[in-house]
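note to self — DONT lose this again. spent like an hour looking for the file last time. sequence + predicted structure for the chain T wanted, 233 res
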Amino acid sequence: MSDAQEGIRIRSLDAMDDILEAARVLGQVWGGDDGGMPANLLRALARSGNYVVGLYDGDLMIGVSAGFFGPPASRSMHSHVTGVLPGYQARGLGRVLKQHQREWAFARDVGHITWTFDPLIARNAHFNLLVLGARVTDYLVDHYGPMDDDVNRGDESDRLMVSWALAAPRAHNPTDVVASVAIPRDIESMRVQSPDEAAAWRARVRDRFLELLGEGLVVGGFRDEAGYLFVRP
């Protein structure tokens, strides 16, 4: 770990007090009455053998990640929520959590981890596709319906589904790019400062994604200055 990550540890959550704290942390990350994940659902996932962990700085819980197993034959796990408190973001802790997920999954014979993310958030696209090497498998229109947390309120919940092949070498950006879809550098600020412009970006990216996927192209990578890179399969 880097100096910024010294003293950070991750452990599975089982005790109800820890589960309640995890729900509170997720509520802080997302804000609003419906932000985060309810404690009873976290408890059910943990007690049925799924992935529910806390990220700690000393004794202070600063992040939470929760996921659940996919269909038995798929040897997959779906990572549903991962959040780190604002004061600890941009310190590489998301990568620490993902590597912990990978090790946890490997120990349970899981070969793939899937999750969703907002296609308009550039830093997540960079991390998921470039740093981890996950691959986009689907574009999901308004996947969760209306959301009333502080992060997503007022926007449609389009998501990209990605799959991370845990044993595969990390793929690099392709050279045979046939199309690209650009996204704004900071959609989160734009939502606050210019919501109409943010909504226009949502519609434009959605339409172009669906058009290119409909032509049989697939997302082969991501480049900060160009956006999503499409290739022929």
